[in-house]
Amino acid sequence: MILLATLGRRLLVAVPILLVVSVLLFVALRVLPVDPAAMSMPPNATRDEIEGARRQMGLDRPLPEQYAIWLGHAVHGDFGRSIHLRRDVLPLIGQTLPGTIELAVCAMVVASVLGLAGGLLLFSLRGRAAEAVAETGTTLLMSIPEFLWALLFIFVFGVLLQAMPFTGRLDPGLERPVVTGFLLLDALLVGRVDVFRSAAVHLLLPAVALGLAFAPPIMRVLRSSLLDVYHEDYIRQARLRGVSETRILLRHALKNAILPTLTLMGVQFGFLFGGSLLVEVIYSYPGMGNLMVDAVRNADLPIIQLVGLTYCVVVLLINSLVDGLYLVLNPRLRKR
């Protein structure tokens, strides 16, 4: 009950945050030197036709009134129509968001595995000559952004070795099953092992490129947390009782050191979700990042606004889940 109450409070706090973000997005997009009415009309449209479109879209009204109209429609699930694609915006987000979530989750799995394993390795090398080499390696990894990893993987595995696909999500000729919108899950639900294998192979390079870029901070935070925990009295008491070093690390130290690491991983996932934009473009991955780039290129304000709000919602949900996991892993916080 305490866990549910805490999550409920976090979600209630998220509502005004989302409203503030929607206001900032709405105002920022409306002050841009872009006329959505003119862009929605054919090139040979007259001035009167453009003005009629402006009145129909409500662009001739004061900005607060425009926002109130938009918010009223948004509450009922109407986020407007794409200026460029001439389609409702919400279904477009619904089609592309699952792909971005799949990419971000797989990349976070890669970052978590590499980060936790690397952090334990760095901690085990403390006081040794190899520690300086390992720290230099993590510094080098931190200096390489995700888009550079993406380009490097394309060159090595796609061009030189020709071992991995690096465009799209499926091999040509394979029909995509549609059940939940998540390709990997849908392939399993309908029993299409060939589709699952193809989707996983196409997902591998972009997921590893993103994961490698976000793994080094997890390594360093886990190592620092373990170093702090090992100065605690209960670690010394465990040694005096004859507990093995492996048991001390896995059963005592890691349980407490993982808390700040978990917080960082939650923050990292938010950044990773946003950082997938460039990787999606590089790999021609049909996700929300590619949709966002096309919308910016065509000044498609309704899509840009809803994509921004979607990123905000995802980050708020991640933070709420991390807070909930904190309560599960640290029972002392439930008494506050």
Query: What does the radius of gyration come to?
Result: 24 Å
Low-confidence stretches: none
Q: Per the principal axes of the C-alpha atoms, what is the gross shape?
A: globular
Strand content: under 5%
What is CATH's topology name of the domain at 89-297?
MetI-like fold
Structural class: mainly alpha
CATH architecture of the domain at 89-297: Orthogonal Bundle
Count of helical regions = 13
Please, what is the CATH homologous superfamily of the domain at 89-297? Answer: MetI-like
What is the β-strand count? 0
Query: What is the terminal-to-terminal distance?
Result: 14 Å
Largest sheet: none
Name the helicity range: over 70%
pLDDT averaged over residues: 84
What string gives the helices and strands in order? HHHHHHHHHHHHH
CATH class identity of the domain at 89-297: Mainly Alpha
